[in-house]
Amino acid sequence: MTSFLQTLASGILVGGLYGLFSSGLTLIFGITRVINFAHGDFVTLGMFGAVMLFTSLGLSPLLGILPVAVMSFLLGAIVYKVVVRRTLAIRGISAVDAQHGQLVLTLAVSILVSNLLLMAFGPSPRAVQGVLPDVYDVFGVYIAQARLVSFVIALAVFLVLYHFLQRTLYGKAIRATVDDRDMAAMVGIDPNKVYAVSFSVGIMLTGVAGCVLATYYPVTPTTGAGFLIIAFVTVVMGGLGNVVGAFVAGLLVGVIQQLTAIYVAVDLQDVGLFLAFVLVLVLRPQGILAGRGAHA
Amino acid sequence: MKARVSRPVEPAALRVEGLCAAYGSIRALVDVSFELRSGEFAGVLGANGAGKSTLLKAISGLVPPSAGTITLGEVDLLRLAPHEVPGAGIAHVPERRRVFPSLTVADNLALGAYVTPAGVPRSELLDEVYSLFPKLRERTGQLAGSLSGGEQQMLAVGRALMLRPRLLMLDEPSLGLAPVIVEEMFERLAQIHRELDVSILLIEQNATQALEVIERAIVLTTGEVTFRGTRAELMGSDYLERAYLGL
Ligand SMILES: Nc1ncnc2c1ncn2[C@@H]1O[C@H](COP(=O)(O)OP(=O)(O)O)[C@@H](O)[C@H]1O
Ligand SMILES: [Mg+2]
């Protein structure tokens, strides 16, 4: 029983971070319809950001969140301006052709980022050491301080995003643009700016998730590949474009991974994940929260 | 409601000259010219496919014209991106209402005031809209997509008024609504014209209904202006029949 609870707790705690970077991916997709194949690499960049700030300036990843958030937002804005916007702005091509362009271009960004990191830092894992080292014993369930704090931060950042989308005027403008782009323009909302902001915010959330993940998870330049798969599975499970769905599915994915790892085999943890993924696709193709939750 | 504010003399609020627009090889507007004076309530009448909606879309910047000019006061509207047009004081209530379905009534109205000048208090605008359409006040928290067609039309007009526009453009507000609701809607439009300082451009297929409220009209026939004149002139002629029957 304790071992089950232990597994559950680890799954939920890491799942919060999956939920956060997946909500970034689903936000971007829900609003711009762009499938970002470089998404995992922005997790990696957030992690490297945390590691660099820690090793060079001695800055704890908890404080590093701010600079990492700002950098990720700016990076998202640049990638949007330089790469993504071009695929959206072309008139007279079909949505499918535009998506082919996005696939190739975001994949190119992914390859570029991981190889630049490889050139700069080499292939060996790097980690932030000795931050949040405590372990709490909660009725026999051991909870690592780093994991707990990371989870709380992920949840808090997600709630800020949710509040932004639901309650602020700009959040409403974003949702209106998703509903009806031309009508949004007819009330004065600049759809191109909405796209740029949404893309940048999506990347920012992802960078922040990477930053706090670095408190207990070592990073290499290719770490992001695994997170990209997790994010795709999570986003589909949560219902495309559904940010609440993505966060909840993130928790589920974390738990499924941990359960498979403990009760089946560590090497098979992704098999359990894909099994659940297929089940969701068959049973609830609209996502686990279909018809509920906030669609971005 | 606010008393009318007097503005400096504006001979023509909206001036359209030599406007042409096409979708590929389909010519939707051919050399269309007309003027709308400040405070005037004018109609654009014509059969289905005559180019009425295209005219409003061109004014809103959603359809780029191939020739011609559109100016509002001193502003060259063709230089503006679509999202900058509301800032010039033009509110467009498009065909089929197009409320934001996944947002609440209150949020739809809030977005109507997205570019309303900061000095205009939103609460005053909201009161104005709610007193015109009391039904909306009962529905504030409801998702716009769940409203009836009539309520959605009220919301679409209310959302447009939240801009406190100089020019209100309405594209077939009677479309798909029950006759009682249409009657009510046109009474509200007449009231808006009486009480607010706004020019109105109304598009209608339903000419009989439109002639109850408009002061002047143009008739479009396959993209061309085939009639322009006052309501009295229009009622005393057979132009409408010709336009609708395509003779
Ligand atoms: N998006 C479009 N693509 C191609 N043709 C269009 C489009 N919109 C309108 N048209 C055509 O342009 C002409 C004018 O259409 P429209 O302005 O919608 O007329 P109305 O509003 O008077 O019914 C019609 O022949 C219509 O079929
Ligand atoms: Mg039309």
Structural features, described:
- The complex is a heterodimer of chains A (296) and B (247).
- By secondary structure, chain A is mostly helical.
- Chain A has one domain (2-283).
- Chain A is 75% helix and 3% strand.
- In chain A, helix 2 runs parallel beside helix 4 and helix 9 crosses helix 10.
- Chain B is of the alpha/beta class.
- Chain B has a single domain, classed as P-loop containing nucleotide triphosphate hydrolases (Rossmann fold, 3-Layer(aba) Sandwich).
- In chain B, 32% of the residues lie in helices and 25% in strands.
- A 6-stranded mixed sheet of chain B has the order 6-7-8-3-9-10, with helices on both faces. A 4-stranded antiparallel sheet of chain B has the order 2-1-4-5, with helices on one face.
- Chain B is globular and about 45 Å long.
- Classes of the chains: A mainly alpha (296), B alpha/beta (247).
- Chains A and B meet through helix 6 and helix 7 of A and helix 2 of B.
- The complex binds adenosine-5'-diphosphate and magnesium ion.
- Magnesium ion is lined by residues 52-53, 95 of chain B.
Secondary structure topology:
The complex is a heterodimer of chains A (296) and B (247).
Chain A: H1 2-32, H2 39-57, H3 61-89, H4 95-121, E1 135-138, E2 141-144, H5 145-167, H6 169-179, H7 181-186, H8 191-213, H9 223-238, H10 243-263, H11 269-283
Helix pairs in contact in A: 1-5, 1-8, 1-9, 1-10, 2-3, 2-4, 2-8, 2-9, 3-4, 3-8, 5-6, 5-8, 9-10, 9-11, 10-11
Chain B: E1 14-23, E2 26-36, E3 41-45, H1 52-59, E4 67-72, E5 75-76, E6 90-93, H2 105-112, H3 122-132, H4 134-138, H5 149-161, E7 167-171, H6 179-195, E8 199-204, H7 207-211, E9 216-221, E10 224-230, H8 231-235, H9 239-245
Helix pairs in contact in B: 2-5
Quickly describe the structure.
With 296 residues, chain A is mainly α.
Ions, cofactors, ligands: which are bound?
adenosine-5'-diphosphate, magnesium ion
CATH top level of chain B?
Alpha Beta
Q: Sketch the topology of chain A as an H/E string, one letter per element.
A: HHHHEEHHHHHHH
Q: How many helical stretches of chain B?
A: 9
Give, in spatial order, the strands making up the sheet with the most strands of chain B: 6-7-8-3-9-10
Specify Rg of chain B, calculated over alpha carbons.
17 Å
> Largest sheet of chain B, described in full?
6 strands, mixed
Number of helices of chain A: 11
Strand content of chain B: 25-35%
Calculate the terminal CA-CA distance of chain B, rounded to whole Å. 45 Å
What is the oligomer described by this structure?
Answer: heterodimer
Overall number of strands of chain B:
10
Helical percentage of chain A? over 70%
Chain pair with largest interface: A-B, 19 and 25 residues
Mean pLDDT of chain A: 93
- CATH fold annotation of chain B: Rossmann fold
- The assigned CATH architecture of chain B is 3-Layer(aba) Sandwich
Rg of chain A from C-alpha positions? 19 Å
In total, how many domains does the architecture of chain B comprise? 1
